[in-house]
Automatic annotation (TrEMBL):
Keywords: Hydrolase, Metal-binding, Zinc. Coiled coil: none annotated. This is MBL fold hydrolase. It comes from Neolewinella marina. The lineage of its organism: Bacteria, Pseudomonadati, Bacteroidota, Saprospiria, Saprospirales. The keyword Zinc applies.
Protein backbone atom coordinates (compact mmCIF):
# COMPACT_ATOMS: atom_id res chain seq x y z
CA UNK A 1 0.00 0.00 0.00
CA UNK A 2 1.06 3.56 -0.68
CA UNK A 3 0.39 6.98 0.80
CA UNK A 4 0.16 10.25 -1.13
CA UNK A 5 1.53 13.26 0.74
CA UNK A 6 0.86 16.73 -0.68
CA UNK A 7 3.16 19.72 -0.34
CA UNK A 8 1.85 22.94 -1.89
CA UNK A 9 4.57 25.40 -2.83
CA UNK A 10 5.77 28.29 -4.99
CA UNK A 11 4.06 31.47 -6.23
CA UNK A 12 1.38 29.51 -8.13
CA UNK A 13 0.63 27.05 -5.32
CA UNK A 14 1.59 23.89 -7.14
CA UNK A 15 1.11 20.50 -5.53
CA UNK A 16 4.25 18.45 -5.08
CA UNK A 17 3.30 14.82 -4.45
CA UNK A 18 5.40 12.49 -2.36
CA UNK A 19 4.01 9.04 -3.09
CA UNK A 20 5.53 6.43 -0.84
CA UNK A 21 5.41 2.75 -0.04
CA UNK A 22 4.13 2.36 3.51
CA UNK A 23 6.48 -0.51 4.29
CA UNK A 24 9.75 0.42 2.63
CA UNK A 25 9.25 4.23 2.74
CA UNK A 26 10.63 4.44 -0.79
CA UNK A 27 9.13 7.49 -2.48
CA UNK A 28 8.45 8.93 -5.91
CA UNK A 29 8.67 12.72 -6.05
CA UNK A 30 6.16 14.00 -8.61
CA UNK A 31 6.53 17.63 -9.76
CA UNK A 32 8.78 19.20 -7.12
CA UNK A 33 7.61 22.80 -6.93
CA UNK A 34 10.21 24.10 -4.47
CA UNK A 35 11.30 27.52 -5.74
CA UNK A 36 12.99 29.30 -2.83
CA UNK A 37 15.66 27.98 -0.44
CA UNK A 38 12.99 27.98 2.29
CA UNK A 39 10.77 25.75 0.13
CA UNK A 40 13.68 23.41 -0.61
CA UNK A 41 14.24 23.14 3.13
CA UNK A 42 10.55 22.44 3.68
CA UNK A 43 10.65 19.66 1.08
CA UNK A 44 13.63 17.97 2.72
CA UNK A 45 12.18 18.47 6.21
CA UNK A 46 8.98 16.76 5.05
CA UNK A 47 10.91 13.86 3.52
CA UNK A 48 12.94 13.50 6.73
CA UNK A 49 9.92 13.77 9.01
CA UNK A 50 8.11 11.02 7.10
CA UNK A 51 11.29 8.92 7.02
CA UNK A 52 11.22 8.63 3.23
CA UNK A 53 13.91 7.51 0.81
CA UNK A 54 13.27 9.16 -2.58
CA UNK A 55 13.93 6.74 -5.42
CA UNK A 56 12.31 8.40 -8.47
CA UNK A 57 11.76 11.90 -9.82
CA UNK A 58 8.98 12.34 -12.37
CA UNK A 59 7.33 15.38 -13.97
CA UNK A 60 3.71 15.01 -15.12
CA UNK A 61 4.59 17.83 -17.53
CA UNK A 62 7.25 20.51 -17.56
CA UNK A 63 5.62 23.89 -16.97
CA UNK A 64 7.90 25.89 -14.71
CA UNK A 65 5.78 25.51 -11.59
CA UNK A 66 6.17 21.72 -11.79
CA UNK A 67 9.93 21.67 -12.38
CA UNK A 68 11.23 24.46 -10.14
CA UNK A 69 12.61 21.88 -7.70
CA UNK A 70 14.11 19.43 -10.23
CA UNK A 71 17.69 20.71 -9.87
CA UNK A 72 17.48 20.64 -6.08
CA UNK A 73 16.02 17.12 -5.95
CA UNK A 74 18.58 15.76 -8.42
CA UNK A 75 21.43 17.36 -6.50
CA UNK A 76 20.20 16.37 -3.07
CA UNK A 77 18.96 12.84 -3.75
CA UNK A 78 20.90 11.85 -6.88
CA UNK A 79 17.73 10.84 -8.74
CA UNK A 80 17.21 10.41 -12.47
CA UNK A 81 14.54 12.58 -14.08
CA UNK A 82 11.75 11.00 -16.14
CA UNK A 83 9.40 12.96 -18.42
CA UNK A 84 7.39 12.39 -21.60
CA UNK A 85 9.56 13.12 -24.67
CA UNK A 86 7.18 15.83 -25.94
CA UNK A 87 7.87 17.82 -22.76
CA UNK A 88 11.59 18.25 -23.39
CA UNK A 89 11.24 21.59 -25.25
CA UNK A 90 8.90 22.83 -22.48
CA UNK A 91 11.48 21.85 -19.87
CA UNK A 92 14.23 23.64 -21.75
CA UNK A 93 12.22 26.83 -22.17
CA UNK A 94 11.08 27.02 -18.53
CA UNK A 95 13.80 29.43 -17.31
CA UNK A 96 13.04 31.78 -20.20
CA UNK A 97 9.30 31.74 -19.46
CA UNK A 98 9.99 32.45 -15.78
CA UNK A 99 12.05 35.44 -16.83
CA UNK A 100 9.30 36.61 -19.17
CA UNK A 101 6.86 36.53 -16.25
CA UNK A 102 9.24 38.82 -14.33
CA UNK A 103 9.89 36.27 -11.59
CA UNK A 104 13.28 35.75 -9.96
CA UNK A 105 15.46 33.39 -12.01
CA UNK A 106 14.98 29.66 -11.49
CA UNK A 107 17.76 27.11 -11.38
CA UNK A 108 17.42 25.29 -14.74
CA UNK A 109 16.39 21.67 -14.52
CA UNK A 110 18.88 18.99 -15.47
CA UNK A 111 18.06 17.31 -18.79
CA UNK A 112 15.80 14.25 -18.55
CA UNK A 113 17.60 10.96 -17.99
CA UNK A 114 14.89 8.83 -19.52
CA UNK A 115 11.52 9.13 -21.22
CA UNK A 116 8.15 7.77 -20.07
CA UNK A 117 5.54 6.68 -22.64
CA UNK A 118 1.89 5.70 -22.52
CA UNK A 119 1.38 2.02 -21.91
CA UNK A 120 4.41 1.76 -19.68
CA UNK A 121 4.17 1.26 -15.95
CA UNK A 122 6.08 2.89 -13.13
CA UNK A 123 6.65 0.75 -10.06
CA UNK A 124 7.14 1.66 -6.42
CA UNK A 125 7.68 -1.39 -4.24
CA UNK A 126 4.67 -3.60 -4.95
CA UNK A 127 2.61 -0.68 -6.34
CA UNK A 128 2.16 -0.11 -10.05
CA UNK A 129 1.26 3.09 -11.87
CA UNK A 130 -0.12 2.93 -15.40
CA UNK A 131 1.00 5.80 -17.62
CA UNK A 132 -1.87 7.59 -19.41
CA UNK A 133 -0.99 10.07 -22.16
CA UNK A 134 -3.28 13.10 -21.72
CA UNK A 135 -2.10 15.96 -23.96
CA UNK A 136 -3.89 19.29 -24.33
CA UNK A 137 -2.79 21.41 -21.39
CA UNK A 138 0.74 20.62 -22.45
CA UNK A 139 1.85 18.43 -25.41
CA UNK A 140 3.30 15.61 -23.31
CA UNK A 141 1.16 15.60 -20.16
CA UNK A 142 1.06 12.19 -18.52
CA UNK A 143 -1.05 10.89 -15.63
CA UNK A 144 -0.15 8.01 -13.30
CA UNK A 145 -2.96 5.65 -12.38
CA UNK A 146 -2.67 3.29 -9.44
CA UNK A 147 -5.45 0.86 -10.36
CA UNK A 148 -5.09 -1.33 -7.29
CA UNK A 149 -5.52 1.57 -4.86
CA UNK A 150 -7.73 3.55 -7.22
CA UNK A 151 -6.09 6.95 -7.43
CA UNK A 152 -4.41 9.01 -10.12
CA UNK A 153 -1.67 11.63 -10.10
CA UNK A 154 -3.21 13.91 -12.70
CA UNK A 155 -0.92 16.92 -13.16
CA UNK A 156 -2.75 19.88 -14.69
CA UNK A 157 -5.17 17.82 -16.80
CA UNK A 158 -8.20 17.72 -14.50
CA UNK A 159 -8.92 19.83 -11.42
CA UNK A 160 -11.79 19.92 -8.96
CA UNK A 161 -14.58 21.53 -11.06
CA UNK A 162 -12.07 22.75 -13.61
CA UNK A 163 -9.57 21.64 -16.24
CA UNK A 164 -6.07 22.68 -17.20
CA UNK A 165 -5.67 25.98 -19.02
CA UNK A 166 -4.97 25.73 -22.73
CA UNK A 167 -3.90 29.29 -23.53
CA UNK A 168 -0.24 28.52 -22.87
CA UNK A 169 2.16 27.76 -25.74
CA UNK A 170 1.35 24.35 -27.29
CA UNK A 171 -1.90 24.02 -25.35
CA UNK A 172 -5.06 22.91 -27.17
CA UNK A 173 -8.55 22.90 -25.71
CA UNK A 174 -10.15 20.21 -27.87
CA UNK A 175 -7.18 17.93 -27.36
CA UNK A 176 -7.44 18.37 -23.60
CA UNK A 177 -11.18 17.63 -23.52
CA UNK A 178 -10.52 14.56 -25.68
CA UNK A 179 -7.84 13.36 -23.28
CA UNK A 180 -10.11 13.74 -20.26
CA UNK A 181 -13.06 12.03 -21.92
CA UNK A 182 -11.12 9.10 -23.35
CA UNK A 183 -8.47 8.51 -20.66
CA UNK A 184 -9.83 9.74 -17.33
CA UNK A 185 -13.63 9.53 -17.48
CA UNK A 186 -13.61 5.75 -18.11
CA UNK A 187 -11.97 5.27 -14.68
CA UNK A 188 -14.19 4.18 -11.77
CA UNK A 189 -16.29 6.78 -9.94
CA UNK A 190 -14.36 6.37 -6.73
CA UNK A 191 -10.95 7.03 -8.30
CA UNK A 192 -9.31 9.80 -6.29
CA UNK A 193 -7.74 12.52 -8.42
CA UNK A 194 -4.63 14.30 -7.16
CA UNK A 195 -4.36 17.41 -9.34
CA UNK A 196 -1.43 19.76 -9.89
CA UNK A 197 -3.29 22.58 -8.17
CA UNK A 198 -6.08 22.76 -5.61
CA UNK A 199 -7.84 20.05 -3.62
CA UNK A 200 -8.34 16.40 -4.49
CA UNK A 201 -11.54 15.21 -6.13
CA UNK A 202 -12.91 12.00 -7.64
CA UNK A 203 -13.68 10.93 -11.20
CA UNK A 204 -17.36 10.44 -10.32
CA UNK A 205 -17.68 13.90 -8.82
CA UNK A 206 -16.13 15.53 -11.87
CA UNK A 207 -18.24 13.45 -14.23
CA UNK A 208 -21.32 14.88 -12.53
CA UNK A 209 -20.22 18.38 -11.50
CA UNK A 210 -17.41 19.60 -13.77
CA UNK A 211 -18.82 22.44 -15.94
CA UNK A 212 -16.14 22.00 -18.61
CA UNK A 213 -17.08 18.41 -19.47
ZN1 LIG B 1 0.83 23.15 -16.25
ZN1 LIG C 1 0.68 23.82 -12.90
Amino acid sequence: MTTVHTLTQNPVQENTYLVYDNDTKEAIIFDPGAFTPAEEKELTATIDRLGLRPVKLINTHCHFDHVFGNAYVVGKYGLQLGIHPLEQPILESAPMIVQAYGMPPMTPSPAPDYFIHEGETVTLGSATFEVLFCPGHSPGSICFYNRQEDYIIAGDVLFRRSIGRTDLPMGDHDTLIGSILTKLMPLPDDTVVYPGHGPTTTIGEERRENPFL
